[in-house]
Amino acid sequence: MKLKYLGISLAIIVLCSCSALKPQTESQVTKEQIQKVQLTDVQKRKFDYFFYEASREKMKGNYEKSAMYLTECLKIDATSSAAMYELANLLVAGNEAVKAQGLLERAISIEPNNIWYKLMLAELYQGNKMGFQAIKLYEQIVADYPDNDEYLYGLAQLYQRNGDEEKAISAYNKLEKRIGLNEVIILEKEKILLNIGKNKSALEELNKLTAKYPEEARYYGFIGDYYLYLGDNDNAKSYYNKVLEKDPKNVMAYFSLGNIALQANDTTGFTSYYKKGLAVKSTPFEVKFQRILPFLMDSKNIDKYDKYLTEFMDVIIEAHPYEAMAYVYKGNYYRSISKTDLALDAYKTAITIEPSNELIWQDYLLLMIDNPDYSKIYGNAKLAITHFPENAFFYLLAGSSAGQLKDNDEALRLLNLGLKHVIDNKPLEAQLHANIGDIYYANKQSEKAFESYKKSLEIDELNIVVLNNYSYYLSLENKDLDKAERMSSKCVELEPGNSTYLDTYAWVLFKRERYFEAKYIIERALDNGGNESSVIVEHYGDILYKNGDIEGAVEQWNKAVEMGTESETILEKIKQQKYLE
């Protein structure tokens, strides 16, 4: 059950249950309504059974069934706050926070001292943009539990989120008096003070940390961030350097200094600081990669950063030589700058390190398709199948490559095996049928080919490659030309500048003896790059012949020969100066 569909289903469950479930505020609830129902033994057993089943289904992830069982509980006992609370949780999971709020308000009216109900309701109030109500409820919670630091912190957060900075500062100060100097509280207060323009007070808060913990390097980094936020780069650099004096392996200080250098167009300083940070072996690979990701994503300036990025990734790999993802990211980078061979080498290393990573195999094989060497794709796809025998995608690549290598029996075997392993992936299933159709047609089994194309289009009716191939092969067979024309015209509609699809459309019209229209369409194909295809040039000659231009037809046929056409009839056509089937 996908969670995104849960909201509608749960809404129906709640609306169809007893009227006692309608959302109500505490002021709307009467004493009669909240009086606890006295259950008979039979009712209690039924209630317990449904509640148990609701819990069991929830643990299994069957939220809709769980909600149905809870609804049954509430039909038996409309005052069960526990059932309301559990159902409210399911409603929240299904993005039905307003209905969940109503249930919790009623649950609290029945069990007013339950802290868990109140905490959840306060969160819902805030999420439902009822900040005032959230604060009011949390103030009540803090009053009921005056010694609970967690609740006081929660109230301070609510004040802060709802724009009451003065009360937030007051709550944080009260909490600080209780638990002593605390990094989290100091940083929250600094954020508020900067937001309201009290910069000096914000700095005083940070200075408390360095005064009490003078050897803690990170706290000087906080002050560096403070100055950086205010645009005072000189003071920021001074404090980041203090961080490195106390902790030479603090990568965040190196990166911050590098960013300041880059901002000042000091590329030497930028690369130097970044390389020092990236070289720290104790810092996780992921942390480092997040720092260079913005440069990798900046497609407009990718050439500008090319030299630096190559160096940066080499430094990361030197620090983490057995981190497969480092090579994957390096491969992705090389691919983005069209260095496919280097990208493939990086991916190959990643697979050597982590041969059981299915996603790396998929990306590696997809990368191979950019500059296809079908022998290599076939071999690697077959190897991937040995690791992941249930992955239909690998069968598709192996089978398609076998077809390109003219091993059609092996291609059909692999592609049909792929069909057996497809699970909930309609595009992949459609593509397998399409490729099977191509192999059947190559085997001169046109009826089986057309059946496979039909199956593919039943799944994906807009697969433009299948539409084109199917319509072209029908025209060659002089079959279902009406259908061929519909499919081919759809291709041209979807990609009006594609010379291959224009050529197919022209050829279908030619087969339908609509020669004038065919000439118009194939000339569009030639204008869109078709003049570099010997097949299209030969077709142009055929169409010119049928339009009565014999001299022009022979000229185009001769041009196709010069281009290296593999046509079996073209020399005879030139000799006889006549179109031949």
Automatic annotation (TrEMBL):
What PANTHER family does the annotation carry? TETRATRICOPEPTIDE REPEAT PROTEIN 6, UDP-N-ACETYLGLUCOSAMINE--PEPTIDE N-ACETYLGLUCOSAMINYLTRANSFERASE SPINDLY-RELATED
Extract the signal peptide range: 1-22
Name the UniProt record assigns to this protein: Tetratricopeptide repeat protein
- Show the PROSITE patterns listed in the entry: PROKAR_LIPOPROTEIN, TPR
Q: Which Gene3D superfamilies match?
A: Tetratricopeptide repeat domain
Placement of TPR repeats on the sequence: 81-114, 217-250, 324-357, 430-463
Provide this UniProt record's keywords sorted from A to Z: Repeat, Signal, TPR repeat
Q: Which residues form the Cytochrome c-type biogenesis protein H TPR domain?
A: 408-522
Pfam family of this protein, just one? TPR_19
Organism, scientific name: Carboxylicivirga mesophila
